[in-house]
Amino acid sequence: MTKEQLKEMFSNSDWNADTILEADKIISRIAEEHLGLETYPNQFEIVSSEQMLDAYSLVGLPISYNHWKFGKDFVINKNKYKKGQMGLAYELVINSDPCISYNMEDNTTCLMLLVLAHAAYGHNHFFKNNYLFKQWTHADAIVDYMLFARDYVEKCEEKYGYEEVERILDACHMIQRYGVDKYTKPQRISAKKEKERLKQKLEDDRVLLNDLWRTVPNDDEGITLRRERFPSQPEENILYFIEKNSPNLKVWQRELIRIVRKTAQYFYPQGQSKVINEGCATFSHYEIINQMYEEGYLTDGFMMEFYHNHSNVIFQPGFDSKYYSGLNPYTLGFNIFMDLKRMSLEPTEEDKEWFPEIAGKGNWAETFRYIVENFKDETFVLQYLSPKVIRDMRLFEVSDEEERRVYEISAIHNKQGYKDVRKSLSETYNRATYIPDIQVYDVDVNGDRTLTLNYTSVDSKRINNDDVDVVLDNISLLWGFPVSLIEDEDPRQTLGISDSKLFI
Amino acid sequence: MGINIVDKRDNPKGKSSPNRQKLLKRIGHKIKKAMPDIIKKSNVKDLTSSKKGVKIPVKGINEPQFGYEGGSGDNKRVHPGNKEYTTGDKIKKPRGGEGERGQKGSNDPTVTEDDFTISISREEFLEYFFEDLELPDMVKKHLNSVVDFKQRRAGFTNAGSPNRLNVVKSYKNSMSRKMATSIFYDKKIKEIEDKLKDTTLTQDKIDELNKELKKLINMKTSVNFMEEIDLQYNNYEQYPVPVTSAVMFCIMDVSASMGEKEKDISKRFFMLLYMFLTKQYERIEIVFIRHHTQAKEVDEDEFFNSRESGGTIVLPALELMDKIITDKYSTDWNIYAAQASDGDVWDNADAISCGDLLRDKLLNKIQYMVYIEIARMRYSNLWEQYENVSGNVNNFKTGKIKDNTEIWDVFKDFFKKRVKE
Fold first, then answer.
1. What pLDDT band is residue B106 in, cutting at 50, 70 and 90?
2. Pick from B234, B267, B290: which residue ends a domain?
3. What is the DSSP string of A465-497?
4. B62: distance to nearest CA of chain A, Å?
5. Integer Cα distance of B314 and B344 in angstroms
6. B395 lies in which domain range?
7. A 422-451 residues with CB below 8 A of B?
8. Is ipTM over 0.90?
């Protein structure tokens, strides 16, 4: 097709498969030549709003085991959508190989091109190249694994009863956020290997005795030796610890724990890369569509619609607006990347001082790729939030100390404030800022086998008391013995203990 | 690399329906627990008429987890859109405020549960509502016998009345027929035209060929626009449907002794019965009969709202019901009746003749009848007589209700699933 024909095609707001195919040819070329993106093959799925809601409630997995939680999310989302409190995303993309993206059927041609560039190239590139994803997820295996998980859960329900399965899953979900390894590399998962491993495990369990419970240390000559803690180092992955060490769990119960924790692990990188991931995708679609326009594929009318949509995506209400609900990760990420490009091409004195390795170097695309590969939100903001972006967005820092009756403005967009704003914004993306650091601390091996969890306090924040007991009760269902939670390794600071009646 | 486009729109819906079923199962007891409240508080009429489904607020399906207590400890937050603040400015904390909250995504665990309302379809609602209940003697005499017909589309025929003509299909046929026929003539015409190109032909031969050509062209243009054979008609067929209609009689005492409260209780009970029946039958008619010393068939509004005073005689109401059944519902109807009264009757003779009428005549005609007594007195003549009757038959039940909260229990008792031996 000639350029004129394509231009005509893209300016028609109705699209069909040919429109997308033609657009993809151009977009994939620009993505590669202009930005140097490298992606998984794309699977571009057209869905209705109902199907989009489905996808929402599975947190963006194409398939998952069945659980009421997902039904509940569906209801909440649907209620919100119906009330008009929430628009549906134009697309939803899955970290898989091939990279699956869901795209709303009622998108116009302009939106389809936007989401194609945004999701199928921007996010896709991020998934394939970001270190967190490379290290923690296996895009080629996830769909197979979730299929395995669904079937396994279904079989368990048939065999052991739906209530039993739900009891375990409920308990696991309560501490799903503590089912994540942060430092060791998990093995690759594949459905086939999983099955083999299970078989082997059954056999092993038959043969092996659990070392932990077999021996009770001698209490020689009345001298009570200080017992070594178990585990000797605190374990951050509580689900993992229970799966491996809980004395009485059945094989299938352990497997359910494993499924929940593997799912958590899959989502671990996503939670820490919202800003940089969305920034990457938004920057990509902005660059690609503009390049298409430069090359003469798009009409002015198309661009008007594009800018309208684009500015919706990066809309950032101020803190005092009634629409304000925190920083928009799309805006923040996009602004940072745009500013990096500006610095690279048209640096100011300030840029040279703050970013000597970028300012004026002109290799913005390379810098962009380098950042996308090697950073997560926390480090991305800490390294690359520039004074200009802070000024443009008029970011300011508020100190909220519990003891004081006032909030204090502790930094604004001025010379003294840049570093503080940057540091504390970066800190808000640190996982420990929103998820309390709770780890397995000890097991009373000689006594009643109480599992002790330890909360390491940060900034004198307290654990929300309302849920502690319920969660502990549920952990103790998995553990099979009492579970307690202490603060800062101090046994006198017990925050909660599971209901003792559970084990009479 | 290429892109693989998949159109998922036609995939079956309800991918999340197993999850929904699980959710309903989980909150089922909460829904059931909310039932008495719903009956008590809400306008029951809305529940019965709403086609959209019923909204049920469900609390306590939050997903507990470890988290920080809001506002505890020292926090630093960054916000956009500073207008006038400079470093060191102080702002008073709002009382009881717990500070700002982050952006709530659809799957954010901090989405509050307070306003979690699940909409369940009318069918699902009734399912909960009447779980453990069943219609009395579901051997409905007419349910299996075919007595009604419905129409449905059944392809096309080539004969029918003009109003069922399917224009598009007929026109298509006509087009293809015309095309097919004219191709035949086109061929012939072309043959002759080819022959005419031959310069060696004699004039006679040319004339002859021209004549034939003319004839063929004539024939080609005279192919009919529509032939009988083109015409297609929509076809319908009749198929039998079981009768699913019922009539429900509501009989209420409106004598002076029945106050607003008593009427309200009766109303709720009738509505409940109505809902119960809508679950089983497609079409339900309701007949309202009110009575004091006389009985009268009235519309719903009058039935519940207008007041009259006077003494109470029950018999006329039952006689009127009998008459209406004979006049209008003598065949093919499932008949249900509910009577509400405070039990207060003029004299015992009335009560006795009511009992007799029921036992000897009425109960043979109807599927099921219930009597509720909005009990203020410990003893009533009517109750005694009705008790007698219900002891001997199994399609008549009696119950006493003191206030709203008991409605549900009494109702359940009436329609309790019988344990099958």
1. very low
2. B234
3. HHHHHHHHHHHHHHHSS-EEEEETTEEEEEEEE
4. 9
5. 9
6. 243-414
7. 424-425, 427-428, 434-436, 438
8. no
